[in-house]
Amino acid sequence: MTEIKGTTKVCGLIGNPVAHSISPVIHNNLAKLCGIDLVYETFKVENDLVAAAVRGAYALNIQGLNVTVPHKQKVMEVLKDIDPLAEAIGAVNTLVRVDGGYKGYNTDILGLGRELEDAGIDIYGRDVIILGAGGASRAISFLCADKGAKNVYLFNRTVEKAELIAAAVNGHFKKDIVAPHNIKDYSALTGNDYIAIQTTSVGLHPNDDEAVIEAQDFYEKLAAGVDVIYNPVKTKFMRLVEAQGKPAYNGLKMLLYQGIASFELWNNITVSKEQIDIVYDRMKRELGIVE
Ligand code: ATR
Ligand 1 pocket check: which of 200, 202, 204, 237 to mutate, most ligand atoms within 8 Å of Cβ? Predict the structure, then answer.
């Protein structure tokens, strides 16, 4: 840990719960590696105290905050400014100190964008399948539209939730990009080159042997698969993608890069590839992950 002095800037995480967050490991290591006089703590904040916490943080000269469940929407009510993509998504996970308050960003989504780049996956002009229609799916749908996906096929068990996301994204981009479907109807897909992004909670530890779609004919149609889950490190979804000889990625890099993006915003720097690799190793060690 950095030696804490009178000059040390404070950043932190608000949410509930926060005790087991990996973010302190990411940011305190980044501070040390980048030679930045900054310390990162977690702050458990109750639902009715989100506004008070953000105002208090500003008053205490806190440099920046991450925001996690369940406050990512609520926090938007007390911000000075919001990045347009985060505003459209309707969720903020990073607050950057500006004159008179904080500006909100969604680095979860910037994180996935960088993970895809790392994997050499370019969404532009591609047909994308998203499985699930929760908070992650909503953000990823916006990302795909923002990155110029040709079509996004949004599959969910509760089709109404997919319809709401599709309406929000298509309304925002004034174009029919996202098409909502019942997950039972995946066999209607006729292409064979889809990028599939798995956002449901199916397959999360301890249900390591489940995938939201198990049929092989679905996986035959994919060019690559990304699971936002990172525990287990290789989900059943990823194994089914790989069984077709196609690359599959988990959510670890997304987690890493959301932290990197927040740190860069707070400190107005670019973290180097070498520093990112070191933090990634430390993050995995802390999570007990061997890849
Ligand atoms: P997050 O905010 O992390 O995206 P979430 O909002 O809890 O998570 O969303 C979970 C997603 O997993 C939803 O799309 C959910 O489907 P429903 O909208 O129909 O509830 C999906 N999901 C969870 N369990 C599922 C299951 N057994 N079969 C199919 N989908 C499932």
Answer: 200
Ligand 1 pocket, residues with Cβ under 6 angstroms: 132-137, 156-158, 161, 199-202, 212
Widest CA span in the chain: 62
Between β-strands 222-227 and 101-105, what pairing exists: parallel, antiparallel or unpaired? unpaired
- Stretches where the chain sits below pLDDT 70 are 1-2
Nearest CA-CA partner of 95 in 77, 111, 113: 77
- Catalytic residue ranges: 72
Against a cut of 0.85, is the pTM above it?
Answer: yes
38: CA distance to ligand 1 center in Å? 37
Residue 289 is predicted with a pLDDT of: 85
Confidence at residue 2, expressed as pLDDT on a 0 to 100 scale: 62
| Residue 162 CA, closest ligand 1 atom number | 18
Distinct helix (H) and strand (E) counts, the chain: 10, 12
